[in-house]
Design brief:
Blueprint lengths: L1 H15 L1 H9 L5 H12 L7 E5 L5 H10 L4 E6 L9 E5 L5 H11 L4 E6 L9 H22 E12 L4 H11 E7 L10 E9 L3
Helix pairs in contact: 3-4
């Protein structure tokens, strides 16, 4: 009964959320699109001609934003183990981004090059147990980090969702060792009560 009430309350908040309503009106697949729009506008993160990899892309809100911003001449490679409806200007790879077969397809699409920007809006399946959810989120962030240092070009940028908790400071230090600048951002579209923030790591240092 408690779970049903919590789910009903979440649904009411979701339906009445102004960013959900705006996304529906403006053709974005998720309210998360506005998080990237807000960060990108502030940080000048996206530009025509860029190659962008979007990890955990489904349902495609971030890929929509990125594809529009990097045109003409740019491209977006979106990766997710969940299915995603096609997005104009986006090449979709279905699979876990850390699995060999998925990585091989990403490498093929990059054709010997590296990305200018890696995006990660990955979230674990929420259990409601804070310590477990934090551990799962930290594990996903670590996988995204390992991917990024292998497929991001020197001086490239990395935007990743993170959750403030016991692993947060250590992950922040890890990023700062490899990037010239790392900043914490919480866009207006992020719900105020959430522990969710975004880490913008700029300028990957050469090996």
């Amino acid at each position: 009964m408690a779970r049903t009430k919590a789910k009903s309350a979440w649904m009411r908040r979701h339906v009445n959320d102004p960013y959900v309503q705006r996304a529906q009106a403006e053709g974005y697949r998720s309210r998360a699109a506005y998080k990237l729009l807000q960060i990108a506008a502030r940080e000048h993160l996206l530009a025509p001609g860029m190659t962008v990899i979007d990890l955990g892309a489904a349902p495609g809100g971030w890929s929509q934003v990125a594809a529009a911003a990097v045109a003409p001449g740019g491209r977006v490679i979106a990766v997710d183990r969940l299915a995603m409806e096609p997005v104009a200007g986006v090449t979709f790879v279905r699979g876990d981004f850390h699995e060999p077969g998925t990585l091989a397809e990403v490498v093929r699409l990059l054709a010997g090059k590296r990305a200018d920007l890696v995006l990660s809006d990955l979230s674990p399946n929420i259990s409601g147990i804070a310590s477990l959810d934090q551990a799962r989120a930290a594990a996903l962030a670590e996988l995204a980090w390992e991917f990024t240092v292998n497929y991001l070009k020197p001086e490239g940028n990395f935007l990743i969702k993170a959750f403030q908790g016991s692993d947060f400071d250590a992950f922040l230090r890890q990023l700062r060792q490899r990037f010239r600048q790392v900043r914490v951002r919480k866009p207006e579209a992020s719900r105020s009560g959430s522990r969710e923030v975004y880490l913008l790591a700029q300028g990957l240092k050469p090996d």
